[in-house]
Here is the input.
Amino acid sequence: MSKIKHILPYEVSDQELITGIAQGDSRAINKLYKFFFPSISRMIINNNGSDDEAKDIFQDAVMVLYDRLTQGKFELNSKLSTFLYAVSRRLWLKHLTRKGVTSKTSDISDFEDILKIEDDVERHEIIESNFRQMSFALEQLGEPCKTLLHDFYIVNMSMQEIKEKFGYTTTDNAKTQKYKCLQRLKKLFFNTSKLDK
Amino acid sequence: MRRQDFLDWADQYMRGELSKEDQIAFEEYCKEHPEITVLLEEHTSFLKLWKDTEERKALRLALAKEGKNIKSNSSLFSSQKILSLWSRLQINAAVAATVALVSVFSTLWLTGYFTNIKKATTDYSALRREMNSVKRNVNEQNKVIRDINNNKTKNTTPIHFGATGFMLTKDGYVVTNNHVINGADSVHLQNSKGQSFRAKIVYSDAIKDLAILHIDDTGFKPLKNVPYTFKKQKSELGEDIYTIGFPRDEAVYGQGYLSSNTGYVGDTIAYQISIPVNPGNSGGPVLDNQGNIIGIISGKQKGIDGAAFAIKTKELIETLNRIPADSLKGNIVLNNKNTLANLPRTEQIKKLQDYIYIVKVF
Here is the structure.
């Protein structure tokens, strides 16, 4: 018996995984794949999906979970596996309807929705579009603004360091440059969002 | 104050780079200028969105990276796992399978399943009788009662069979069935006067179910020539036939007719005869009206009335011819002078009796 116990993967509680994901812990991500990916990939591959699509859907599902967690709802009202499976299924169905394939998916769309994951998925989509705009704006920004802002706001470099790194004569020059860059970024971001609407 | 200077100040405030007095001054300034707080809020929320974007990007990258690793070795991993499980539990599985097999077959054997199969698949019964079964059972019981307090195990009485045999030649060759003497420790022949002689097995043929014995006893005196002859030709259906055998310790006469030219399930080495026979009749001679031996009784079919079987004389003679010469003391020369032919049945039987023996097998 002891041998069997040794072979079986030891249990990690859902809560441990959730806190791990909220912190972006790579071990938690690894476990997430190990525990939940096989069943989801089976579901997707059995429903006209490929392994890569399965992975995309799974990653999206984890992002839905992440969004839910970062919105402060650390409590799940179901098991983590159930949540991820249901979200993946919902995302996959959406993906299929977008592709126009509906005929062969009866066996997963027949499922009754026990969880109210619809809200989660919608919220995820709104957040996702915001983030997409942000990424887009950042890409449009160009160098050296992008690195300058990144160094200041994300890496938390001091103005002095930035002055040296970018070769400005005074910190005031650097500050002016930073302000201009930020204004351009904001403009880019809000313009794309206006375009979207 | 310009927007640029204010935002710079706000950045310093949020990063905690300001001194205490400056922090208070900043907060005071925000209170005094409500219109500026809109700008501040917009600025902070924008920055938060940006930071979140970066975090999400990092997580997505981590997920994608992990996904690549998982994909490449997920199937490998699971098969390895199964393999290791198998290699670990191989011995256990083998032991379990062995135990299961052994217990199944030993249980079947102990409950007599295999002997039942044998019984069920054949309804041929060989006609030897167990001489001492009742006595043995009683003895066993008594012994158990006697030995109830001391655990000594004593030798059980060996099974002891009885059947019939008859003379081939006057110098002591006797024929009976192979199934009678099969597995025998010793064979004794007892004549109608009650004299018992030790006999040794000269030859036995399991397929034809025949055994040739030779009386090997100093007390045996050669008899007069045997009164009967052996009829090698085929006998006709409906022929009137009779036998003498020892289904009990006294000679028993049985009469009937030849009912078929083949034996059990079409066996061509035997006749089917209609004579009431019982265990103990095995090896008895079957004679026709003229006192010719036409066969040797060997068995009967269970569940069918009057279906007994007798091995044809032809087969007996073939068997005799196949006995290697060095296991014989001189040739077996069968009698060809029939002294029974014209006698009435009762006289025939009187003459026959001396040549028919109870075969006792221990």
Summary: The two ends of chain B are 131 Å apart (CA to CA). Residues 34-110 of chain B form the longest helix (77 residues). The interface with chain A takes residues 3-4, 7-8, 11, 15, 17, 46-47, 49-60, 62-64, 66-67, 69-71, 74, 78, 81, 84-85, 88-89 of chain B (CB under 8 Å). Residues 163-361 of chain B form a domain with the Thrombin, subunit H fold (CATH 2.40.10.120).
